Amino acid sequence: MNAPFEELDPEACLALLRSQSIGRLAISRPGAAPHLVPVNYTVLRRSIVFRTAPGTKLELLVKEPVSFEVDSWDTRTRTGWSVVVEGLAYEASDREMEIEDELHLDSVAERQNSRWARLMPESITGRRIAGEFAAPEPPVLVADPGLEEWHGGGTDRWVSPRRP
């Protein structure tokens, strides 16, 4: 069986990022586990843009490299993908964002007091879980006359649809 994972190139990753609006931002904290928070975002050219209220997240993200992850998973077909963006982020000015014609972000962060943040990628990587990893077909109930004696009655048994 081939490996179920397909490595994605950066352009394919960006296309997948554009298809979603919620991701997870991981920010380093000195002497502690990373600060991990969901953010709603948009892709602006090759960068990730989101709004955030002043506080821990904004203070930390401008000091150290950050990671940003977005994924999708289909439980029925057991297929999906994951994209990770790593790089440096900064607090972007309102003026910088105002001149961006392509910026469309419906942020849940409070607009009156929130700030723009922009992640400039140093790497964009992703993987897709291929369809061959999909769940097997459900079993089918078929009659089996030989089980009646063995079980003392009843003629049904579960078998895989791939077996005769």
What does this protein structure show overall?
This protein is an alpha+beta fold and 164 residues long. The protein folds into 2 domains: 5-133, Pnp Oxidase, Chain A (Roll); 135-164, no CATH class. Helix content is 15%, strand content 47%. It has helices spanning 10-18, 56-61, 94-98, 147-151; strands spanning 5-8, 22-29, 32-44, 47-52, 66-74, 79-92, 115-129, 140-143, 156-159. A 6-stranded antiparallel beta barrel has the order 2-3-4-7-6-5. The longest helix is centred in the N-terminal third of the chain and has 9 residues, at 10-18.
Short description:
By secondary structure, this protein is an alpha+beta fold. 15% of the residues lie in helices and 47% in strands.
| Count of discrete alpha- or pi-helical segments spanning 4 or more residues | 4
- How much strand? over 45%
* Main sheet: strand order: 2-3-4-7-6-5
User: Unreliable segments (pLDDT under 50, ≥5 consecutive)?
Assistant: none
Structural class: alpha+beta
> Would you state the CATH class of the largest domain?
Mainly Beta
Shape: elongated
CATH superfamily of the largest domain: Electron Transport, Fmn-binding Protein, Chain A
How far from one another are the termini?
Answer: 23 Å
- What series of H and E elements makes up the topology? EHEEEHEEHEEHE
Helix content: 10-25%
CATH architecture of the largest domain: Roll
Number of self-contained structural domains: 2
Q: Overall pLDDT, averaged?
A: 79
